[in-house]
Structures are given as C-alpha cells and as structure tokens.
Prior knowledge:
- By secondary structure, this protein is mostly helical.
- The chain is built from 9 helices and no strands.
Amino acid sequence: MKALIDTYIQCNYKEVEKYTSYFIxxxxxxxxxxxxxxxxxxxxxxxxxxxxHDYEAKGYLFHLIKTEIIWRDTESKKELTNAIDDxxxxxxxxxxxxxxxxxxxxxxxxxxxxxxxxxxxxxVKKIFFETYFDKGYNTVRSIAKHFNISEFSSHGLITEMKQxxxxxxxxxxxx
Length: 175
C-alpha cells in the first residue's frame, strides 16, 4: 500500500500540490502546501487503507488533504498555531521594560521642560510658560481668557512653545 501512494505522489506531485494549494487559498489560512501534504501522507500511512489501484490512493490522499485543511485539530493547524504562539511569545515585550521605557520618555520630557524654563530669555514667553505649566491654564480658551487675547493668538503661542520644547527634547535625548 505504501508503494502505491509513493508512486502516485512521485508521478503526480504537481497535481497534488495544485489541489492542496487550491484548498488552502479557499480556506484563507496561512498553511504551507508541503506541510499539509506531508501531514496527509503521514495520516495515510497511519491509517494504511486497503487500496488496490492508484485512483483509490489518489482519492484517499485528496480526502486526507481536505481534512487537514478543513478539520479543526489536525497536525497542520497545530503546527500553524504553534508557529503563531512562538512568534507572539518572542514578540511580546516584558511589562517591566514597557514601563521603564515609558518612564524614560516622561523623564526626558520633564528635563526638556526644565531646560526650556531655565534657558528662556524672552520675558513674554517665560510668563506664558509659567501660566501654562505652573498656574494650570493649559487650554487655548483658558489662556486666551487669562491674557485677554484671541483664541487664535493663544493657539499660536501654545504651538510655538511646544515646538520649542520638542526641539530641546530632540537635542537632549537622554537615553
């Protein structure tokens, strides 16, 4: 029986490959054609059906290929799930490292803000900065109301200040 299926696969591998690839595409799974064929072949050998002709072996093999793709707990799908799990385990960063990276980012931002505070020579910008950060007027409307200016001007001043802080942050990155 093994000799019959081996001969059929050797002579008609392109047909088996085409059939398998057609069903994999229809299932929209990321299975490998060779994996499915190999697992179907191994199942065929485990079952060892009583076949006498090559067309019976072909039918049985094609049935096993379909079941490898369609059924839930087949070896091909287990290999796919294991591969995905391995990938996800490798790609999941440690929670501690995420928190640490976030803390570094916050620390860099705080340092950039302090550098801006200490290096700002323009008196108007310094008063605006203190109002924004220290007094808590941190919206366009609240700043506009506090300084009795238009919201458009307030937005421009906030944007300018934040852009200056971003430039400082880029220059003095502390990682």
